[in-house]
Amino acid sequence: MKTYLVTGGAGFIGSNFVLYMLKKYTDITIINLDKLTYAGNLENLKEVQGNPNHIFVQGDICDKDLVTTLFEKYDIDYVVNFAAESHVDRSIKEPEIFAQTNVLGTVNLLNCAKNAWERESGWKEGVRYHQVSTDEVYGSLGETGYFMETTPLDPHSPYSSSKAGADFMVKAYSDTYNMPVTITRCSNNYGPYHFPEKLIPLLINNCLNHKDLPVYGDGLNIRDWLYVEDHCKAIDMVIRNGRIGEVYNVGGHNERTNIQIVKTVIAYIHDNVDNTVTEDLIKYVEDRKGHDRRYGIAPDKIKEDLGWYPETTFEVGIIKTIQWYLDNRQWIENVTSGDYKHYYAKMYNN
Ligand code: NAD
Ligand code: TYD
């Protein structure tokens, strides 16, 4: 019976991970620590409500007393750190909370894990700290080439810089204290429970509500889209069998320009849901400051070491995703009814 401390498990990827793991394994316990910011929603975890193998704790990863208590109370084998402020646009407006949660929160988790796991003779058997990072730490690509694990870190936004800072602290705990750690750096995820401030769910939500679809700059920035379940599978494989101290890049082999994504979403909704939704909704707006041009991952290492590959093609994943949002309109309504409404109104004046 392995015990996981999963942080940020009420957010987009974290909740998908919790659901994936509890469906796959009946012999694990997950302690799910989440602050429930605007991006965290208990509704994402409805499927595991009442499951004795899932224990939800509302709290902050920066809270030393709380995290120490969790290590004392539960015999934690693995920490999987998803908790973060994750939206680039927000980081441009309010960088401080990104440094606080993403860097200092990570350091607090590392430190509490070290206090609980380190022995005079070495480290407790079988334990591991896993950091969920992003390909954005590598910066931006030109028209060719891919991010490799050996690519030097060159982050640009306050978000990606805070994630790079966290990665360096994880590396420091490995290099200095020999702490057993792994890091995954993934490309842009999409799928169910994605908060509708990020591109794909925002487009779906706005199409359904006949709102403008804001496209930053020329719409030709490229992202490499990864279906969230494929990402969860990769993390599970890395925690179980990834080599200690290593970084694994996880990518979907699904590079698309933003405008291609916009047109794909419009076309599906037009053909299957509402034929009044057309490309007239597209609105080119001012570019994001410091907007990274292209992200792209060659996930060769994780394929060779662990046999992982992205199973879900973009054509299949995007339909599954749009369909999920159509079937869960109340979820969108619920998660956007709080602070987000004001934020959205301020951003887009509507
Ligand atoms: P998200 O914003 O949807 O969820 C973040 C979760 O963390 C929320 O539930 C929030 O309540 C929680 N949280 C925030 N601050 C906290 C704190 N101080 N203490 C405890 N909990 C806190 O983010 P996501 O998209 O699910 O991303 C999860 C992780 O994956 C992040 O670390 C992010 O950097 C990384 N990542 C995401 C993507 C992506 O495409 N979404 C891509 C690469 C990497
Ligand atoms: P986003 O989903 O915010 O992810 P990230 O910035 O982490 O890659 O944005 C994906 C791409 O879509 C990025 O190039 C910015 C662009 N974008 C828009 O054009 N319009 C939007 O309204 C949003 C949210 C993003």
TrEMBL record:
Gene3D superfamilies: NAD(P)-binding Rossmann-like Domain, UDP-galactose 4-epimerase, domain 1. It is an enzyme of class 4 (lyase). Its EC number is 4.2.1.46. It comes from the Bacteria. Its cofactor is NAD(+). NCBIfam families: dTDP_gluc_dehyt (TIGR01181). This is dTDP-glucose 4,6-dehydratase.
